[in-house]
Specification:
Layout: H1 2-18, H2 20-83, H3 86-92, H4 98-115, E1 123-128, E2 141-143, H5 153-158, E3 164-165, E4 169-170, E5 182-191, E6 199-208, H6 209-217, E7 226-230, E8 236-238, H7 252-258, E9 264-270, E10 273-281, E11 288-294, H8 295-349, H9 351-357, H10 365-404, H11 408-424, H12 428-445, E12 451-453, H13 454-471, E13 476-482, E14 485-487, E15 494-496, E16 502-504, H14 508-520, E17 528-537, E18 540-547, H15 554-562, H16 578-590, E19 595-600, E20 606-613, H17 617-620
Parallel strand pairs: 1-2, 13-17
Antiparallel strand pairs: 1-6, 3-5, 4-5, 5-6, 7-8, 7-11, 9-10, 10-11, 12-16, 14-15, 17-18, 18-20, 19-20
Helix pairs in contact: 2-8, 3-4, 8-9, 8-10, 11-12, 12-13
Length: 621
């Protein structure tokens, strides 16, 4: 084996040496230049794709910025509408009577309810002086003193009436006690119409933070992206980690980057990790919408886009290689074809001896082919001789087996003599068993034929069961169910007896034995019933054996048909090879689509069905 391996390696090495000039030409003229070109092109194309990908991400971020601007501007319009409402002016007057306030309140409540038709408005709140009616309602009206402790109170005062937006924060509302939502608020001061220098209240337009979070969550740049909102002073306005809200952005590199311009894309390196910072400015608030994307994610996306170009380049190199190979083969095959044709003609015309004579004129690799063909022919001849010898030995074994067989006539006569002796001694049970045994031998031997009629096979199974009933009295019972077949030829059809169909000899007996010894005799009461059926379905003949014994697992049942099991049984009744043998003989007799099928479950008995193609005596002939 090792010598053959070295011979094969030597053949490959010689083939490589023979084509070394072509290999060198391919490496120098095609492979090396193509590799350099492919590497340079891939690097350049990857950079271009990376720039294109980041530009696309910036456009995606700007689209989200437009959406955020639209949402905030709609809230600003709502705030302006309330701010300019005359009833609000009346309510805020220092000189307004309670009657004027009540009249204004009805209009204000309608205005507040109408403002909430804007789906972006979560709540409208008015912080007014304690002397005003409903200032302590704490749903839409709140005391002015309650907002002075807020961190953005001074910013609202300094804005001089312009809208000031807070970051996301948690707020508690008495009308929704089970939920403390995160909200954004747009606040502005309200002045006393009678004394314009005096601040009479603050108007707050609240928006649910989830509205803005949904806009940010729809930004799809990378699987590892982080998108958040930052105020001009570096405070986190909106972030997926709620614990960071209101804190300063920790990354100084990101802060320095987003302060440079209103929008852009920059690559930064921090904590040994490279990433891109994509940012844009929300004009309505001055916040920065920022996305941090790991550089490796962008590089992998660019690499995926680069695959098409790489495949195209590799395809071009492969085509060049194939062209070179075809040219090489054109020269080699042209010369080899003549030599191979010569070898084939010698084999056909002169045989092995003529091929041996040509060794003196052979050279190069074709000599190896000639030797291989010669070895093949000698091997075939040796195999033919070995096959002939094995056939002779097999025939001699068959003759010795035939010589060792008992003469059937002598066996029948001897059993008949024993039967009469038993009758003479009035041993009827012995006589019955001897008579059954004689029938069993007569049916099983079948004059040396390998096929029997279905009727004879059923009779053989019956005799076997009668013998076993003598052996195991009152332990089981059996019955036969048969049906005739109808021949469709002719006008009315004719019934065909089971005696007209042939099957392999000893098909039912191993199945019946299995049902008795493995199904019934191993059950708890060691009693049961065996039912044997013979049915014709179309062109198929079905023989089934059913017992109500212990049954078996479906996996074990399947293995009995696919794996021979020549181990001895515990009760000494022989091997379990029978079902496998019957299944194989059935397939050989009728085809692969036929054979045995086992249906069984533990405790529910077993049914083994043998399916054959209907074959009459005429078809066998």
């Amino acid at each position: 084996m090792m010598h053959r391996g070295w011979t094969y390696v030597s053949m490959i090495f010689k083939s490589v040496l023979a084509a070394k000039l072509w290999l060198i030409a391919y490496v120098v003229l095609i492979l090396i230049p193509a590799s350099i070109f492919l590497y340079a092109y891939s690097q350049r194309y990857s950079r271009i794709l990376e720039e294109e990908v980041t530009r696309t991400m910036l456009q995606t971020l700007k689209q989200a910025e437009i959406n955020l601007n639209h949402q905030i501007n709609s809230l600003r319009d709502t705030s302006n509408a309330i701010f300019m409402n005359p009833k609000l002016v009346t309510y805020l007057r220092t000189s307004a009577s309670y009657g004027d306030q009540l009249d204004a309140l009805n209009e204000l409540r309608y205005m507040v309810d109408n403002a909430r038709t804007n789906l972006n408005v979560f709540r409208v709140r008015l912080y007014v002086d304690d002397s005003k009616l409903f200032s302590h309602e704490k749903v839409n009206f709140f005391p002015y003193e309650s907002i002075k402790a807020s961190p953005w109170y001074k910013d609202v005062l300094n804005a001089g009436g312009l809208l000031v937006w807070t970051g996301a924060y948690m707020e508690h509302f008495i009308d929704i006690p089970n939920e403390d939502p995160y909200i954004f608020s747009g606040l502005r001061i309200l002045r006393d119409p009678d004394h314009y220098d005096n601040i009479s209240g603050i108007l707050s337009i609240d928006v649910d933070a989830r509205i803005l979070e949904n806009i940010l969550s729809n930004i799809k740049l990378n699987n590892e992206q982080q998108v958040f909102l930052v105020a001009p002073d570096g405070t986190l306005v909106l972030h997926s980690d709620k614990s960071l809200l209101g804190t300063k952005l920790k990354s100084s590199a990101v802060l320095n980057t987003i302060e440079q311009s209103n929008e852009g894309v920059s690559a930064i390196e921090e904590d040994n990790s490279q990433q891109y910072v994509v940012y844009t400015t929300i004009s309505a608030t001055g916040w920065k919408l920022v996305a941090e994307v790991p550089k490796k994610g962008i590089s992998s996306r660019a690499a995926s886009l680069n695959q098409i170009s790489s495949v195209a380049t590799l395809t071009g190199v492969t085509v060049l290689f194939l062209i070179l190979v075809f040219i090489l083969l054109a020269f080699i095959v042209r010369g080899m074809n003549r030599r191979v044709q010569t070898v084939i003609k010698v084999i056909k015309r002169e045989g092995i001896e003529g091929l041996d004579e040509r060794y003196g004129t052979s050279d190069g690799d074709i000599n190896l082919l000639e030797k291989s063909v010669d070895h093949l022919i000698h091997r075939v001849r040796n195999l033919m001789e070995e096959t002939y010898k094995s056939k002779v030995q097999e025939r001699e074994a068959q003759l010795r087996a035939l010589q060792a067989q008992i003469n059937p006539h002598f066996l029948y006569n001897t059993l008949d003599t024993i039967n009469w002796i038993a009758i003479g001694h009035k041993a009827h049970d012995i006589s019955q068993m001897i008579d059954g045994l004689a029938k069993y031998f007569r049916l099983s031997l079948n004059k040396g034929k390998d096929v029997v009629t279905v009727t004879d096979e059923l009779e053989l199974a019956k005799v076997y069961l009668e013998i076993q009933q003598t052996r195991f009295p009152k332990s089981f019972e059996f019955e036969f169910e048969t049906s005739v077949a109808h021949d469709d030829g002719g006008a009315e059809g004719q019934e065909r007896s089971l005696d007209s169909f042939y099957i392999p000899k000893l098909t039912l007996q191993p199945i019946v034995e299995n049902a008795l010894l493995h199904g019934i005799r191993k059950s708890k009461g060691k009693t049961g019933k065996i039912t044997i059926r013979a049915v014709v379905e179309g062109d198929d003949l079905l023989l089934s054996v059913t017992d109500d014994g212990i049954g078996m697992e479906p996996e074990l049942a399947q293995s009995l048909l696919t794996e021979p099991r020549p181990t001895m049984r515990n009760d000494g009744s022989g091997s379990s090879y029978g079902l496998y043998n019957v299944n194989e003989r059935s397939k050989l007799f009728s085809g692969e689509a036929y054979g045995l099928h086992i249906q069984s479950s533990p405790g529910e008995g077993t049914t083994i069905t043998a399916r054959f193609r209907c074959q009459s005596h005429e078809s066998e002939a």
